[in-house]
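Deliverable D2.4 — example input (structure tokens):
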């Protein structure tokens, strides 16, 4: 007997977890910033600044999830699902901005490494590691289904890595007295943050530009559609993402001149295959049998938007 497929957590469960993580993070930002100032540690101040962006990120993620739960209406026929994509993009932008600040401060300290209170750095970094790992665990459930939630999780996971780096720097400084390790660790933390921010930006922009999902093989998709009984050809094919887990497809399907019932059977077969093999559940299939351009697989939007009168005027000398 096969194990049941894990279900996505409910919106109420996700918002509750985000709310708890938000409260814990907000309180700890103040504690860590004060400790970083007292210890004169850029690693701790870097982590506190990153935590501060997490407060905003978690707040926006919480709001976006609430918006996404609203039903579609006449003004927004797809609903509010892309609110989370906009928030994910904004969260990634804040990560990039804070990384630039980290690099600048680290450069200044590499030129003249200041003395660091290693004991306070170690204690605070250890507590920060526990807090950040705990809040990351709170929002981890379901992050693979939602880019907005994933961006919040990466914020918190990045903080956990930052805290681990600050802890390692504190221990090494304690035993070696090499204060230059503090800005060096900050640079490594910044590179890690920047890499994760770039991945979120890339996925967000792809979705907003309605690009084909990166893990979808279009050649295989076309072959599978054409293999369905009754399908003579396809054209004007579009596949895009509404959010990370919701895919949509529209296509013109060329068939023989058959009855409506047989055409509906072909549609059902196509929808079943697209759902099972490619997780595409929102489809628009336009069935055609004559007067088509089956050689044009991906439609030319410029030609498609030309008005008949414009075409007539082009022939006037």
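Example output (designed residues):
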């Amino acid at each position: 007997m096969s194990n049941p497929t894990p279900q996505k957590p409910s919106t109420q469960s996700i918002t509750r977890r985000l709310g708890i993580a938000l409260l814990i993070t907000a309180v700890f930002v103040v504690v860590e910033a004060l400790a970083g100032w007292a210890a004169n540690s850029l690693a701790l101040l870097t982590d506190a600044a990153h935590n501060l962006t997490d407060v905003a990120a978690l707040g926006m993620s919480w709001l976006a999830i609430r918006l996404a739960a609203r039903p579609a209406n006449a003004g927004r026929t797809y609903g509010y699902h892309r609110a989370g994509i906009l928030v994910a993009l904004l969260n990634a932008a804040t990560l990039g901005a804070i990384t630039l600040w980290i690099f600048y401060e680290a450069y200044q300290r590499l030129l003249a490494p200041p003395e660091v209170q290693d004991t306070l750095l170690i204690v605070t970094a250890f507590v920060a590691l526990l807090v950040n790992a705990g809040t990351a665990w709170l929002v981890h459930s379901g992050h693979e289904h939602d880019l907005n939630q994933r961006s919040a999780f990466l914020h918190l996971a990045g903080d956990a890595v930052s805290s681990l780096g600050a802890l390692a720097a504190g221990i090494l400084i304690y035993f070696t007295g090499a204060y230059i390790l503090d800005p060096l660790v900050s640079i490594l933390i910044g590179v890690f943050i920047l890499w994760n921010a770039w991945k979120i930006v890339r996925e967000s922009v792809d979705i907003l530009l309605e690009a084909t999902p990166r893990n979808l093989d279009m050649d295989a998709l076309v072959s599978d559609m054409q293999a369905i009984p009754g399908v003579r050809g396809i054209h004007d094919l579009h596949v895009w993402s509404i959010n990370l887990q919701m895919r949509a497809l529209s296509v013109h399907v060329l068939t023989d001149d058959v009855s409506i019932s047989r055409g509906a059977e072909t549609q059902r077969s196509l929808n079943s295959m697209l759902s099972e093999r490619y997780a595409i559940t929102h489809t628009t299939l336009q069935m055609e049998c004559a007067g088509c351009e089956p050689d044009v697989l991906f439609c030319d939007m410029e030609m498609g938007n030309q008005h008949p009168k414009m075409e007539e005027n082009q022939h006037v000398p």
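Residues 1-6, 307-317 have pLDDT under 50 and may be disordered.
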